[in-house]
Amino acid sequence: MSEGDPPPHPANPEVALVLGVDLDGVCADYTTAFRAIAAAELGVEQSALPLERSWDFSEWGLSRDQFQELHHRAVTDHRMLRDMPVMEEAAESLWRLSDAGVWIRIITHRLYVNWGHARAIADTVDWLDRNRIPYRDICFLGDKPQVGAHLYIEDAPHNVTALRESGNRVIVFDAPYNRDLSGPRAADWAGCEHLVLAEAANMGFRLQTQLPGLEAGTDRLEPDPTE
Predict the structure, then answer these.
(1) pTM as predicted
(2) How far apart are CA 121 and CA 158, in angstroms?
(3) Catalytic: 24?
(4) What's the CA angle centered on 129, arms 151 and 46, to 5 degrees?
(5) pLDDT tens sequence across 69-123
(6) 22 catalytic, yes or no?
(7) pLDDT digits (tens, 9 = 90+) for 172-185
(8) Which of 163, 107, 115 is nearest to 135 (CA)?
(9) Candidates 5, 24, 56, 188; catalytic one
(10) Degrees to nearest 5, angle at CA 12 with 173 and 168
(11) What are the structural domains of the chain?
């Protein structure tokens, strides 16, 4: 198997399905978090920065350099990666998938900002812990086809295209900037969970699914009173 190839098709039911999960725009609401910070930095009302935006934020009137500077401030000064809103039902769905036998691999390009890598990594792990997002391992990189997984959940158009051109299966997490991409597509985490289970069955994986809310350890999703 060459570098970047997905793991082989399972030869036995003991092999786990590896699910590559993106963070920003999939588990974490990047647009809402960045919008609040950008509005404060630019001195404008949030309503002037529409949530229905293109991948390059053209609707916000930002050049590439302006976006990079604002993103840098958001990560290093405002600690955005620590405080982003979590997507509804992301933790619950991922716990059910994990309990069913799915190996969850977080894959994120959060080392995009130079000279802030230690803070970005620490804030990312802190956010995952505080929002009770389950995962077995985590990869910080931009070239996602280089990470071996059987199935991916992704919102970025260029990543979806690159992954599919490398022969990978990808579920598109719906966003205004990716609606020209073909499915499978999920509008929310309930849809993601359904599609992951369907794709797993198509690939020959045997998952032990559970009813929502009845799985062992449901209280693990409750905030820790000591935090």
Answers:
(1) 0.84
(2) 23
(3) yes
(4) 85
(5) 999 899 989 999 999 999 999 999 999 999 999 999 999 876 565 556 778 888 9
(6) yes
(7) 999 999 999 999 99
(8) 107
(9) 24
(10) 30
(11) 18-28+86-211 (3.40.50.1000), 30-83 (no CATH)
